[in-house]
């Protein structure tokens, strides 16, 4: 998938998303699913990247990955296990690492949600958030945590993380 | 039981501007619900909000926090509605008014208000950390009750200041020794 991402490097965001999603679904179909079956099978090590709009179109804005991805009927939703989202600034610096054991990602409106646990870590190590049950909106990077929210702010030295 | 209250009205304006060295430490925020604006490093918490820090413990119904990020270590936290703060006042180095001896005791403050604002920022080598308490602001230790609008707590000097600053010394703390004292309930 890393090779695919490099090949797609430079495509605009919708095109890159469409190509990656299409490849993922084609891979699922080619994995031995019978023609009459709904093409819903498991894919491992799923990765999808998004790029900034011009003039930063060469920079990755976010990288979404999952240890296991299973498109749900309608191919609009993808159920992830081992969900991980990394976001980056326009200078390439890592900003956040979002992780959830499982969630459902909506490819159309760019949202992710789950009733399960969620952790968010600022890449500089200063802040960690966690909670149970969440809705994340990709477009405005806005997250709602429904239950048992816990934030830890560390005032120690920065822990630099590179993408 | 004889109780004596001495009310000292200090200058009506006594804003604290001293630079201090606030201690570092981990801060934990717990709440029922949370909202996180990842672009602006801002979080909002609702319901049974609780903040734990080596210097203080705060509870309230609603809280917004600007989080530190990258090279910006500043912090701004706004707490609203039924704000209750327990502050570590450090060692009381003041002198007993009657005995003339140092009090030399650990001091704890219990603060209640409608609103509190925690500000933390670093300018060069100097760190400023204050808690500004507004709306029915009242701070109580075992010796005194302090009111003001607002009250400002400096986490470096561990002292209060503010507008309309009033200190009410609880009566039994004026007697020599000050033991076997029950706190005097006072209302300014």
Summarize the entry for a quick read.
With 163 residues, chain A is mainly beta.
Q: How many beta strands in the DSSP annotation of chain A?
A: 7
Biggest interface reads: A-B, 29 and 25 residues
What is the H/E order of chain B? EEEEEEEEEEEEEE
- Taken from the alpha-carbon principal axes, the silhouette of chain B is globular
User: What percentage of the residues of chain A does DSSP assign to strands (E)?
Assistant: over 45%
Main beta-sheet annotation of chain B? 14 strands, antiparallel
H/E order of the elements of chain A? HHEEEEEEE
Helical run tally of chain B: 0
Question: Count of helical segments of chain A?
Answer: 2
Backbone structural class of chain B:
mainly beta
Strand adjacency order, main sheet of chain A: 1-2-3-4-5-6-7
Shape of chain A: globular
What's the gyration radius of chain B in Å? 18 Å
The major beta sheet of chain A can be summarized as: 7 strands, antiparallel
- Mean of the pLDDT scores of chain B? 76
How does the helix and strand content of chain A classify structurally?
mainly beta
SSE blueprint and pairings:
The complex is a heterodimer of chains A (163) and B (188).
Chain A: H1 2-8, H2 13-29, E1 43-51, E2 60-71, E3 77-88, E4 94-106, E5 111-122, E6 127-137, E7 142-153
Antiparallel strand pairs in A: 1-2, 2-3, 3-4, 4-5, 5-6, 6-7
Chain B: E1 6-9, E2 13-14, E3 27-31, E4 33-37, E5 42-52, E6 56-66, E7 75-92, E8 105-123, E9 126-134, E10 138-140, E11 144-147, E12 151-154, E13 159-163, E14 166-169
Antiparallel strand pairs in B: 1-14, 2-13, 3-5, 4-5, 5-6, 6-7, 7-8, 8-9, 8-10, 9-12, 10-11, 11-14, 12-13
């Amino acid at each position: 998938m890393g090779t695919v991402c490099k090949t797609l490097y430079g495509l605009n965001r919708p095109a890159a998303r469409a190509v990656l999603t299409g490849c993922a679904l084609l891979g699922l179909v080619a994995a031995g699913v019978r023609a009459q079956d709904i093409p819903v099978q498991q894919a491992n090590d799923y990765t999808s990247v998004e790029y900034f709009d011009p003039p930063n179109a060469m920079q990755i804005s976010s990288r979404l990955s999952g240890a296991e991805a299973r498109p749900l009927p309608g191919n609009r939703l993808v159920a992830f296990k081992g969900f991980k989202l990394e976001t980056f600034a326009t200078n390439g610096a890592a900003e956040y690492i979002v992780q959830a054991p499982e969630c459902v990602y909506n490819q159309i409106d760019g949202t992710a949600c789950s009733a399960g646990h969620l952790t968010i870590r600022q890449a500089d190590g200063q802040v960690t958030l966690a909670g149970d049950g969440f809705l994340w909106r990709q477009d405005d990077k806005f997250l709602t945590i429904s239950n048992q929210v816990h934030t830890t702010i560390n005032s120690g030295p920065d822990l630099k993380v590179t993408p | 039981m004889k109780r004596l209250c001495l009310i000292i009205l200090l200058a009506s304006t006594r804003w604290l501007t001293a630079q201090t060295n606030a201690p570092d430490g981990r801060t934990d925020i717990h709440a029922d619900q949370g909202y996180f604006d990842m672009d602006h490093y801002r979080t909002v918490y609702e319901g049974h909000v609780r903040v734990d820090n080596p210097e203080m413990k705060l509870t309230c119904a609603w809280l917004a926090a600007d989080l530190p990020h990258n090279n910006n270590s500043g912090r701004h936290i706004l707490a609203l509605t039924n704000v209750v703060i327990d502050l570590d006042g450090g060692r009381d180095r003041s002198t007993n008014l009657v005995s003339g001896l140092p009090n030399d005791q650990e001091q704890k403050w219990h603060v209640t208000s409608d609103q509190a604002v925690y500000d933390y920022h670093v300018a060069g080598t100097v760190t400023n950390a204050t808690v500004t308490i507004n709306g029915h602001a009242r701070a109580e230790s075992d010796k005194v009750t302090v009111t003001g609008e607002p009250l400002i707590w400096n986490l470096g000097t561990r002292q209060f200041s503010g507008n309309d600053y009033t200190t009410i010394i609880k009566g039994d703390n004026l007697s020599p020794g000050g033991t076997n004292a029950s706190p005097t309930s006072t209302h300014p």
